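Now for today's protein:

——
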Amino acid sequence: MVYDIEEDRVNKVLKVGRRYLTWIQNSVLEGEITDAKYEKLKYELKNVINEKTDSIIFYVNRTERYLRKEIIGQEKNRESMII
């Protein structure tokens, strides 16, 4: 999950996101969650953001088999579960 949120809502979005996913770096979270929790996460975020000015993007991979992650520079969080 990556997001671009107006400053007054950033902490609220991060707080909701961290209940379901792992914080990786500024405005980026990742993790493996069930479909039901994914729907709940989206519902909770929609209640926090302004859909006219804020943006949240989810990158969904059905399997880690086709995922490759490369990091250049400092890895902010070593956990590696992908949504």
